[in-house]
Inverse folding.
């Protein structure tokens, strides 16, 4: 199977560089990246990037991808308690696939129960939530624990892409 990742963004206020940098890194390594959101309507980043998602979340099938990655930014809070997002995370986890998240988005994985006993990082505002949900929080730029890749903030976007690519290629 060709190596493929699906990046989940909010319809509004996803963090532009957290999407664009890792996407560029993965594509540069020959990994196909699809973008998904609540709908296929145009999505707009916090800094103005406009993108038309390839898929609506409901159309994602874990068997089609190696990795599921949640992009941060204030808009990503819409997924913090989203049953569709949680089902997707559970499906990828059950299939032994890679889960990734950057900035505040690791809270989506934590709230879905996917970070119990995992070493992770995120934007500092999410530290307590991650710990409350059973994760080991470090505050580092990027953490890789098995098939879980998390990153702190936009400054970690390129390193996040490098680590994701490494885990996907492994």
């Amino acid at each position: 199977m060709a190596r493929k990742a699906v990046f989940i963004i909010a319809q509004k206020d996803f963090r532009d560089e957290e999407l664009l940098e890792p996407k560029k890194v993965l594509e540069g390594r020959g990994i196909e990246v699809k973008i998904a959101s609540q709908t296929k309507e145009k999505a707009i980043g916090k800094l103005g990037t406009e993108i038309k998602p390839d898929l609506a979340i409901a159309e994602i099938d874990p068997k089609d991808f190696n990795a599921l990655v949640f992009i941060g930014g204030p808009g990503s809070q819409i997924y913090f308690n989203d049953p569709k997002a949680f089902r997707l995370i559970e499906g990828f986890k059950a299939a032994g696939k890679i889960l990734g998240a950057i900035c505040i988005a690791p809270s989506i994985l934590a709230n879905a129960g996917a970070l119990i006993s995992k070493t992770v990082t995120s934007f500092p505002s999410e530290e307590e939530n991650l710990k409350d949900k059973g994760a080991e929080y470090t505050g580092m730029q990027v953490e890789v624990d098995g098939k879980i890749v998390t990153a702190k903030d936009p400054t970690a976007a390129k390193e996040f892409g490098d680590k994701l690519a490494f885990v996907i290629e492994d």
In short: The helical segments are 16-28, 83-94, 106-111, 127-132, 157-169. The radius of gyration is 14 Å. The CA atoms of residues 28 and 165 lie 10 Å apart.
